[in-house]
Amino acid sequence: MGMRNLFVDAMKGHDADYIEIHFEESQSTDIVYRGGSLEEVSRTGNSGGNVRVLVKGGWGFASFNRLDKLRDKVALAVQEGTLVGREPLKLPPAEPAVDRVTQQVNKNAATVPLLQKKELLDEYNDIMLSSPKIQSTRIGYHDVRRRVVFASSEGSYIEQARPDLSLRLTAIARENNEIQQAGLSLGSRGDFSMVESLHAQAKEVAGRAAALLSAPQVKGGEYAVILDPVLAGVFTHEAFGHLSESDFVYQNDKLRQVMVLGRRFSSKHLNIVDDATIPGLRGSYKYDDEGMLATKTYLIREGVLVGRLHSRETATKMGEAITGNARAINHLFPPIVRMANTFIESGGSSFKEMLADIKEGVYVKDWYGGTTSLEMFTFSAGEAYMIRQGILAEPLRPVVLTGNVFATLENIDAIGNDLAMNQGGGCGKGGQSPLPVSNGSPHIRIRRCVVGGR
Length: 454
Prior knowledge:
Number of domains: 2
Radius of gyration: 24 Å
Distance between the termini: 62 Å
Oligomer: single chain
Number of helices: 10
């Protein structure tokens, strides 16, 4: 019996309003270094799936790793849904899709020998470790070849290839009792060529970490700040994108009162988009994990909140359009509302023009990490430079940006013409991490932002 027929038979005859089955097969490679030690080198294979059902508004969920008792798993999920369902929830109508989606890459990471991957990372690690003042390093490499199958009681049957690859290089410098670090994050849709020939970048990362040891700290205060495309993209994703995920909005009374469609958050030059349809980006896909077609969704258009991200359930409950943003990290989890590729669209300013108007400010690049709590954010920049009389001046120790996201959006007074997408890292939410996403932005200038040193 073919897989599609197996799924169709397993979904027949149950007392449920809606049923979907997910199944995936994956093969992954992980290589981890800490200093001169190779901590992990592994190649693993995995397969499994889950059943998700809707019964009177209640979701039932059951995962499995064998297909021979699939009908029993459907029955178990139906039983769970029956226990929690209280009132009908009619999902918006969706046209059934039958499709097979493949992925073409320049150099498929899954076909590159493990030894070749290790030897390349050895070279990067040796370059960083042999650099002046570098005490230790960290390298994390991961690639996965994944085939995902989706079937629903509405008649959809979709097979999708979803490869992914990520690499993080970190150099840690030490002098006396002072420690500084610098890093580089990259990723691709399983294209190994994206992480080849990084020898110069590895050396630059080590040099940057060493240079931070002698850099001065910024005097804490409020400055005009320019963010590079990487940090501006992370800000867009973390500080605003998560506030646009409708399951978060729907469950939070305070946020519902703030994130009102039609509210103006910035001047007309600001446009923020989430777009899963862009070819080649890590957050892209043709169908989400509910079998809905991916979309381009404007969150802010000309400064006004015009949209948010939805699953079928949240679109129903909030009376808005489905956006195809229901995603799960793997078969052990149900899909929840997640971003794809989130970015600020290009504006009309050059970087030089942004600098020219600043008597004293700070230019920040890259990022180490950050936290958000509703509309409040704190981000650590990976690089920082003083701006004096419109010119980039001395490098600074890592700085921290803090503020209110809505006040910060109002204070964006210039947007660059140099949009770039960041493919490194991943997104975490609801215990599902790291989900492949991309974020990006042109350079942006913020009139006033609180900047602090370590």
